[in-house]
Specification:
mainly alpha; 2 strands; two-stranded antiparallel ribbon; about 375 residues
Amino acid sequence: MPVPLPTAETVNLNPPDAAEAAITARGCAWAAAPATGLTPIQRVLLEALFPAMTGHAVDVGDLVPISAHEFALALARRDLQFRTRGVQIMLLAALVLRPLPAEVAARVADFAHELGVNESMIEVARRFASGSLGLAAIDFERNGYTSRWQPDDAAALHTSTELASAWQASVDDRELAARWAALESLAAGSLGRPVWELYRARGFNFPGTPGSAPPLLAQHDWVHVLADYGTTVESELEVFGFIARANDDMRAFSLLAMVVSLFETGYLRTGAGLFEYSIGHLSANSDVAVRLADAMRRGALCHDHVTNEDSIDFLRIDWFDLAPSPLDEVRARFGVRPKEPRAVAAGSVGPREPGGISPFQLESGRRLASDLAIEYESFGAATD
């Protein structure tokens, strides 16, 4: 039977202390561990996430069992949001497993049940574990971030025609394409100008033109600039970790689950109307887990000082309204914190730095410059 949620009088809204961080990490590790114990990437990920999110280092090397009910009792004074975040950490640690054992998916479900948490991505994990990858992809759309998409949600995208679905591309919209192209005229220190540079250096097509990203997906390109992340696959993990954690709508976690399923395990073959799978980008280098953890920390600390909201949906911001504003002012508005030195040392770079562009993107940018009969400019980006 689920452990009841606390009352307004008994709820604990304080940051976790070291003891609570330790038992929470223990529960997350036990829930996500396969029969052979935590994999190296699971351990690195958990031991990076907990200090980033709680300020307390943890050690999950000694895997001590804990029942779902015992774990829920340990979090008895925590509200639904805190409990849900804990389940999402379990899920994140489970979703890096390939194969994902059915018993792990079931154990995470048991922990969620005892906590009174209804997390839709648990069903996705069950699909992955059973090999039903096509059904899992459907569940992402049915239960994830875009599950309640309405035509009115597209207002910030500035498409000239209504989008039938959230990730629909818009490849014949001259007004939309012109709006993106006009970012070139903005001042060098603005938010919008480096977004234009990001597109030009990588040969990206502007939304509204053939071969472009869906307008909703293009919203995340502004976050590459806002949060100072490059455009390699590893940087995409950082961007979506930042976006997912900044949003207190728990369905936003599906965005992070999506990119992990694309870029670590390959359980998803495509996603967000454009992305294609490329496996092993978390497990190939433990530094990426450190970078992802710091991105989630930075997202969690965001605060919109104009609306006075802690929860920010960065995919539904009208970025064109903010495009002429100085980039530093926009970062200040949203409370974007600097990267931790540990993340920088682990290779976290911005779109204008060495390592901030992939070889494929560099070649695409050069090809576009050749097609336009202009000299190629990377705007500081390089492959290493």
